[in-house]
Amino acid sequence: MQDTVLIVGAGPAGLSAASTVTASGYKAVVVEKEEILGGAPIISGYAKLVPSGEWAKDAIGRMVSRVEEDSGVTIHKGAKVESLDGEVGSFTAKLSNGETVTAGAIVLATGFTHFDSINKPEWGFGTFEDVLTTTQMEQMVSTGKIACPSDGRVPERVAILLCVGSRDRQIGREWCSKICCTVSANLAMEIKEISPETDVFIYYMDIRTFGLYEDKFYWKSQEEFKTKFVKARIAEVTASPDGRLLVKGEDTLVKRPIIIPFDIVVHAIGMDPNEDNPEIAKVFGIGLEKHGFIERAEHYTNTCGTTRRGIYSCGAAYGPETIDDSISQGAAAASRAVADLNALVQKAS
Amino acid sequence: MNSKDPKANNETQGVAGHGSFFQQTDLSREEAVKATDWVRKHVDRRTVDLGDRMDDVREHMYELEKDGEIIIHRITDEHEPQTVKTLFGWEKKIPTKQLWHHKSCGQCGNIPGYPTSLMWFMNEFGYVPGKDYLDETDQTSCTAWNYHGSGIGNVESLAAVFLRNFHQAYVSGKQHGHELGHFFPLVHCGTSFGNYKEIRKYLIESAELREKVKKILGKLGRLVDGKLVIPEEIVHYSEWVHVMRNRIASELQKIDVSNIRTTTHVACHYYKMVHEDAVYDPEVLGGNRTAIITSIAQALGAQTIDYSTWYDCCGFGFRHIISEREFTRSFTMDRKIRVAREEANADVMLANDTGCVTTMDKNQWIGRAHDQNFSIPIMADVQFAALACGADPFKIVQLQWHASPCEDLVEKMGISWSQAKKNFQEYLKEVENGNIEYLYNPELAYGGQA
Amino acid sequence: MATYAEMQQIYDDIRGDFRYDSELNGCLNCGICTATCPAAHFYDYSPREIVQLLWTENVEQIYDAMQEKIWACAQCMTCAARCPFKNSPGGLVAIMREVAIKHEMQSAKDVLRPFGRVMLKLITTGNQLSPDMIQPDHFPDWGPNIQKVEGDLSVLRKAIPVKTLQTVETAWEVSLKTSVEMYTIWEMTGVMKSLELMDENLFDVIEDFIDEKREEYEEWLEEQEDED
Lengths: 349, 450, 228
What we know:
CATH architecture of the largest domain in chain A: 3-Layer(bba) Sandwich
Radius of gyration of chain C: 22 Å
Shape of chain C: globular
Distance between the termini of chain A: 16 Å
CATH class of the largest domain in chain A: Alpha Beta
Order of helices and strands of chain A: EHEHHEEEEEEEHEHEHEEEEEEHEH
Number of domains of chain C: 2
Structural class of chain C: mainly alpha
Helix content of chain C: 55-70%
CATH topology of the largest domain in chain A: FAD/NAD(P)-binding domain
Largest sheet of chain C: none
Distance between the termini of chain C: 62 Å
Number of strands of chain C: 0
Strand content of chain A: 25-35%
Order of helices and strands of chain C: HHHHHHHHHHHHHH
Largest interface: B-C, 100 and 80 residues
Number of domains of chain A: 2
Strand content of chain C: under 5%
Helix content of chain A: 25-40%
Oligomer: heterotrimer
Number of helices of chain C: 14
Radius of gyration of chain A: 22 Å
Number of helices of chain A: 8
C-alpha cells in the first residue's frame, strides 16, 4: 500500500497529480464523484482557456486521455470516499461504490463550486432572461452567435459585472476569485470578434490581470477590441418597459449616480469553496480555513500539506486558483506525497 | 492525445480565437445543455454553509440570556408563531396572536387607516381585544425619525426608548390579567423596525451600552429582576400580513381583484437596514426580492407589476419631507410616481411604511406645476387587503386622509366611492352626537380589563 | 473658520464614536453607495466621497463636508445594504451630524431651524408628527386636497374607530406617566443638552412644558394616594 497514492478529484489538479504519481513509479487511484473526468472545465463546458486560447475540451481532454490510458492509474468514477481509517503510510478508504482503497498518501484535488448568482438577487439573475453568467456567455461564444436570450436580437451593449460572489462581505465572500478579470477581458474580446457591432463594458472595483495577463488581456482588450473598463460597482439591475436592462452605477468622474441601458448583463461569477467541503473535512479529518477552503499545513516548508499528515491538497481546493497553477500544484502535491512515502520506506528499512 | 493540433487552431482562429475562421466547439445542442446543467442547479444561500462568516446576532443574544445578563421576551406556542425564511435562509418566528400594537407616529397622525385596517383584520379573525391583542397609551414612538432627520438624540437615548417600550410590552400582559410576556410587540412602523433592530444589535454587542442604559431603565423601574428585557424577534406588521395572507384570502376576501394592477414599494428601512432579517420566500418573486407586500397582493389574486425603479427609496429623507421638500417631491415624482404610472400603468402603489406612503401620497399635486400630470393611488398593503375583504373605505380603511386618487382604485374594485362617502358623512353626524363605533373597548387602552 | 486643532478635534470625536469601527472598515472606492443614493441624484453629495474623506483622515475636507453635504443624506441606508465592505456611509453621516451638533456648528443650527416644530412635538409628546401639523397651511405644496372629506379635525379624528387615535395634538394618546419617563430618558442621555446647544429658545419652551407635565403628574400621583 505504500506504493499507492489516492487522488480525490479528477479536474486539472487531480489529473496532473495522477500523472506525476505514475511518472515517479508509484500507483495512483483516482476517485471522482462525477461520471466523467476533467473537472470544472469539462463538466461546466468552458470554451477557450486562458491564457493558451485552446478549447477546454482539447486541452483538458489531453490530460484526461493521458490518465485514462495510463496503466498505473485505477479510476473510480461516480464515487466518493465515505470513510477513512489508518494513518500516513497505511490509509484505508471505503468508497460509496463499495470498493476499498488502500494507499500510503492522499491528495485532495477537490476543487471549488461556482458561485451561484441567485445569491446576489439585486443583479437580476433569475429575474431577467438577458442576465447571464460568464460560463453561459462562454457557451454562447462557442455557438458563434451573440444574441439576447429573450428575443434573439443582436445586443448593442453588453455589460460584464466583475466580482459577482467575490470581494463581497454582504454575502460572506471576502476573497478575490483571481481569474474573473482575465476571463472577462478575454470574453469581451471574443464577443467583439463575433459581433463587431456590440460594445462591451466591464464594470470593476480593481483590475487584477496579474503577471503576464496585463498586456495580453487587459491592454489588448482595450487597444484592439475597444472594451470599455468602468470603475464602478453596480447597485441594481432592473428592466425598462421595452425589455432593455437598466444598470444603476456611479459615474465616478462626476460623483453622480447614473442609469445605463444594456442588452445583456454578464455576471463574472467567482469561486466558492467546494460545497462538499464540510463533509470532506469530516471524512478526511482535515481543517478548513476561515473562508471554507482547505487549510494549508504550513506555508513555506509544507506548502502542499493539510492539517493531517499524509494528506495533501492542491489547486482550487486551497482557494481560488487558475487552471495553469492548479496543474502545477497537482504535480507538486503528488511529488511531495511520493517523496514523503519514499522517506517513510527508507526509514523503516 | 487529441487529434487536433492546438497550435494550428490558434493561428487560424484570429487573436481571440474566433473571427472569420471561427470554429465551433463541436458540442451538440444536447451536450451544450448538459454541460451547463450546473448553471440551472441552484446552490443558494439557503443551503450554502456560511459558517462563522455571517453573524446572526440572535445567537449572541441567547448567550447573554444564558449568562444571566438579559431576559429575552420569548415567542411561545401561545403566540401561534409561523416560521418564515429571511435573506440568508435563516428562520424567523412571526407571532400571529397575543400582540402588543406598537404604533407608528406617522401612521397614526397621518395615515390612520394603517392601524385601523390591521386591528379590523384581527377582529375579523375573531381575536379578542385585551387577550389576543392590546393597544394602549403607555408607549412612545421610537424617536428614530427625529434622530435620522436631525442628529439630535444618540444611541443611548434610542436604546433607552426601545427598552422602555418593549419592557412595557413585556409587562402589559400581567397588567391585563395574563402572564408576563403574554403580549408580543408588533411594530407598525418601518423605521422603528429598522432602528430597533440596529439598536438591539448595538445592545447585544456592547456591554458598555448595556451598562449605561441599565442605569436609566433602573431609575424608571423598567428592569425585570434587575435585567434588561429584549424581544426574541423584532416583528413588523407587514410580516404578520405576510404570514396571514392565505387565511386573509381564503377566509375573508369578498372582492375579486384580478383586474387590479398593483406595484409595490417596500420600505428601505424594512429590507435594507439589518437586511439579513427581511423575509424572502421562494414562492414570491422567485425569492429574489423580499416577499413582503407582493405576497399579499398575489394571495389576493391581484396582478403584480414590476417597474424599473423598484429598489429606489421614496425620497422621504426624514428631515427632507419637512424642510427640503423640493428634493422629496422631485425624487418621488420622478423615480416612483412617474414610473409606476407610465411604465407599469398601475392602478395602485402599495407600501408598508409610514414615510413612504406620506411622501408618495402627498406629493402628487405639486407635480402639476412642473407638467408632471400623473397620479396614482397610494396606500398600505393592509389597507388594500382590507378593501378586498369588504372593509368600509372610510370608517375602517380611512382613505379620507389620503391625497392621492384612491377613489379611482375603490371604484375599479366595484365599490361605490360616492355612496361610501355619503354614508361616512352621515356617520360624522353620529360622531358629533357622541355615537362612536370602536374596534375594541376604549377602557383597554388605559389598563382596563377585557 | 475653525482652526486646524478644532477640525482635528471634530474628526477625533467622529472617530471616537463606538460605532465608527464597524461602520467604516476600509473602502474599495467602487461607488456602489453613490450609485444607489437618492440624495446624490439631487445634491452635491456622494457617500463615497464622505467615506473616502474619513478613511484618508482629511480633517479639513471633513469639516467642509459637515457644513452642508452631510445634511443632504436621506438616511435610507441603501448604501449600507449594498457596500461590499459592509460599511455604513449613512451610519457615518449620522455620527457626523451628532458631532456637528455637539460642536454647535452654525450650519447645523441653520439646517435644523425649520425642523424645530417636529423636535418640539417629539421631545414633549414622544410623537414626531400630529394631525394638527398636517394641515394645508403647513404644507401648501401638498395641495388643497390633502383630505377627501371636509370637516372639523377633531370630529374627523373621533371617527377613527380606535380610542388611542382620537387625538389632534399627538398622533396617539400617550399616558402622562409615559411622557414623564421619556423626559427622564432625554435628560439622562444628554438629549436636552444637545437641544440647548442647538436652539436655546426651543429648549426653554420645551423645559417649561416638561416642568408643567411633571407637576401635573405629581398632582395625579397625590390624588391616587388620597383615593387609596
